[in-house]
Every structure is written in structure tokens, then in C-alpha cells.
Design a protein that fits this description.
Blueprint lengths: L7 H16 L5 H13 L3 H13 L1 H9 L1 H4 L8 E2 L2 E2 L1 E6 L4 E6 L8 H4 L4 H4 L1 H9 L1 H7 L9 E6 L4 E6 L11 H5 L4 H5 L5
Parallel strand pairs: 3-6, 4-5
Antiparallel strand pairs: 1-2
The structure holds fe (iii) ion.
């Protein structure tokens, strides 16, 4: 719940709802914790890195991924499903001419299942407000200095729609295996605040 436009009053309402379910004998805290562990236990940037490495080595998969990420994810035994809900995922590819970066301007929506829990700066008011207004300056502060001719697109997530960046495959990696390529991909690369 912590990543879905949750405000403090809403969190308190959810807690009261949990307590009523428990009082009615429908579910207990241990079951709720176990459900959360099942969801978060597999949540890691390793998943996003696997997707990227497959897209770098398999052009047909890359096409399917960019066309409909939700339909392509099961090829890697991944999905955007948490409980009964499936979040929409769009993967956007960086090119030599265009760089992409993700944000949730409203709160902190983020593809947790593919990237793991979000970094604290992603949830900060400063990042959320500034990356939209002055993305080039914000990326430079992350150490990513983009040439002036590279266009920057900022993708604003919502409760229903999440985004992930497909970085450009680094030069000189022709001989690497898919697993080795996955090892090059960082969480920041998947957010768009780093090149890879
Ligand atoms: Fe959000």
C-alpha cells in the first residue's frame, strides 16, 4: 500500500479496516504480513535488469516489450500483478537522441515489483517537483550530463500506470552473455537518473 497515492489519513483508514477484518475473524495480522512478504519478497531491481538484458539481446522481445510490456513480462516469469490488481506498465526506450526519466509528481508510484522499493529521493518533494521543471539540471546532479541535443522526456506515473526505462546498451558489450549484461544494469538506469 505504501506506494499507491497513500496519504496518512488513508493509511489510518486502511489500518482500521484491517482491525475490523481481524475482529470479525476474517484475516489476521500474520496473514496480512505473509501476503505483503509474498509481494515484496520477489521485488528487486534484478527483475528490471533481466528485462533489459533480454531486450538488448532479443530484438523481437524488445519490440513486444515496447508495444505491450504487460503481455511481454510473463516471458520472463514476471508480471505487474499484485493481488487481484494488475498495474499497467509502459517501458520506454532511451535512444541516442532521446533520454527518458520517470517520476510520480503526486506521490511515489513506482514499479516496485521490477525495481524493488523506491529510493527515498524518488519520494522527495524536491525530485518530484524539479525533475519535471528542469530535468537536465536534475540529471546532471545525479552525474548524468546529457548533450544539449539529447531530448529529455519525463514520464509521470499514477496509481494505475507505471513506467520503466530501457537504457541504451553500452558500447563494447558485444561479447557479454545475457546474465552478464543484466549485471550492468542499475536501479538508477531503470529510473533514468543514470545511463545504464
Ligand atoms: Fe504516486
Amino acid at each position: 500500500m505504501s506506494d499507491d497515492h497513500v496519504s496518512t489519513p488513508l493509511a489510518a483508514r486502511v489500518r482500521r479496516f484491517e482491525e475490523r477484518l481481524a475482529a470479525a475473524g476474517l484475516v489476521d495480522d500474520a496473514e496480512l504480513d505473509a501476503a505483503l512478504d509474498r509481494f515484496l519478497g520477489g521485488a528487486s531491481p534484478v527483475n528490471g535488469a533481466r528485462i533489459v538484458a533480454r531486450a538488448w539481446t532479443d530484438a523481437a522481445f524488445r519490440d513486444r516489450l515496447l508495444a505491450d510490456a504487460n503481455a511481454a513480462l510473463p516471458e520472463l516469469d514476471l508480471s505487474m500483478r499484485s493481488g487481484l490488481q494488475e498495474q499497467r506498465l509502459k517501458v520506454i526506450a532511451n535512444t541516442a537522441a532521446r533520454h527518458n526519466v520517470i517520476v510520480c509528481t503526486l506521490c511515489s508510484c513506482y514499479p516496485i515489483g521490477l525495481l524493488g522499493p523506491s529510493p527515498s529521493w524518488y519520494k522527495s518533494e524536491a525530485y518530484r517537483a524539479r525533475v519535471v521543471r528542469e530535468p537536465r539540471a536534475v540529471l546532471a546532479e545525479f552525474g548524468l550530463e546529457l548533450p544539449a541535443e539529447v531530448e529529455i522526456t519525463v514520464w509521470d506515473a499514477s496509481a494505475e500506470s507505471r513506467y520503466m526505462v530501457l537504457p541504451v546498451r553500452p558500447a563494447g558489450t558485444d561479447g557479454l552473455s545475457e546474465t552478464e549484461l543484466a549485471g550492468l544494469v542499475t536501479r538508477e538506469g531503470l529510473i533514468g537518473t543514470a545511463a545504464v
